[in-house]
Write a structure and sequence with these properties.
Elements (H helix, E strand, L loop, with lengths): L5 E7 L8 E5 L2 E7 L5 E5 L13 E3 L2 E3 L6 E2 L5 E3 L17 E4 L2 E6 L14 H4 L4 E9 L3 H9 L4 H4 L8 H4 L2 E6 L2 E11 L3 H6 L6 E10 L3 E10 L12 E14 L2 E10 L6 H31 L12 H21 L1
Antiparallel strand pairs: 1-10, 2-3, 3-4, 5-6, 6-7, 7-8, 9-10, 11-17, 12-13, 13-14, 14-15, 15-16, 16-17
Bound molecules: FE2/S2 (inorganic) cluster and fe (ii) ion (FE2).
Length: 341
Amino acid sequence: MFLQNYWYAVAWDHEIKSAPFGRVVCGEPIVLYRQTSGELCAFEDCCPHRLLPLSKGFLEGDRLVCKYHGLKFNALGECVWMPGQEGIHKDSKIRTYPVAEKHRFVWVWIGDPALAKAGKIPGLQWCSDPAWVFEGSTYHINCNYQLLVDNLMDLSHEKFVHPSSIGQHEILEAPIKVTSDEGSVTVTRWMHNIDPPPFWAANLKSFEKCDRWQICNFSLPANVMIDVGVASAGSGAPQGDRSKGVTGIVVDLMTPETETSTWYHWGMARNFQTGDRGLTFRIRDGQAAVFTEDLEILEAQQKNIIDRPDRGLLNLKIDAGGVHARRIIERELNAGARARR
Ligand code: FES
Ligand SMILES: [Fe+2]
């Protein structure tokens, strides 16, 4: 049902503190906490005794205590105390998950723990590079993660869903170029000599006329990075000179919760006016408003999909990026299923 053997963003790093934090990732309930050393640990969110979620419990030093009858687990998932008996029942160890912290996020590995390598964490260098500023948040959306991928790989929807911020009619007129390889898809759109849309005009350098770009990159399991920006019209941005413009990277990490719900971690990284904290939060709040508009669309769309199991989706030319991404996901899911058989 979900892609295995990938790192999934489970939370922002500041969200995991010295208290149990529960989250379902790819249908698997997981509890995480930070030890007194600052190290993270992640377990199955289920006490082996009577199956209460351990995220309802509490910490005693580095030990996680179940809220129901007090079983205590160390950071290796081993039960170290049980009430009313000598010794420890042999079936009381809980499953642990590989967990890592990088680029401002906490990641858990879903799949075979032996395959979890830190080098496989997505390379979100802008999120942790001191020359960049990165801020964002998380939305819980009642839709399948692939609807979010479709949405982010086809920005023609901006004209209709986000008319007051980033939408403009030129998006519909500008052609897209779609390229792909083994595990990624890129959709590139350039709009030349246009008025900047309200979001860019209000928050960034304002131009009479600009060249605007949107370069959406999908990579497995469900990450979409969008290189966006505007530059003074005719100043050479399409040829690679962005010195007369501003660039942002919209970071979108989709972590499936269930077949019909997703934890959507989003943000924007930028490398200009990095000392302007007011701008950082204006951009974050602007993005929050934009993605709230998407959320309403996606949840309504998901409801109709559930209510009409006999209806398929119609693929138009604008959907080329999302269709490619779906093919890659499907191929990986099939390969995983074959390997398990
Ligand atoms: S359910 Fe956890 S100790 Fe009983
Ligand atoms: Fe959108």
